Automatic annotation (TrEMBL):
SUPFAM superfamilies reported in the protein's UniProt record: Phosphohistidine domain
Molecular-function annotations in GO: pyruvate, phosphate dikinase activity
Record field: transmembrane: none
Protein name, as recorded: Uncharacterized protein
InterPro entries linked to this entry: Phosphohistidine_dom_sf, Pyruvate_phosphate_dikinase
Length: 46
């Protein structure tokens, strides 16, 4: 939108700013790996 006059008076959509969230940490792709991590005392979530 290079020309603000084209869209300034027309509402295209409304809503709340949101995101699915964020996570920090490490990931495993197999249940065996998650079990091994858990055995080592690391947190594992499937």
């Amino acid at each position: 939108f290079e020309d603000p006059k084209v869209y300034k008076d027309k509402v295209l959509a409304t809503g709340l700013p949101a995101s699915p969230g964020a996570a920090v940490g490490q990931i495993v792709f197999h249940a065996d790996d998650a079990e091994a991590w858990h055995a080592q005392g690391k947190t594992a979530i499937l």
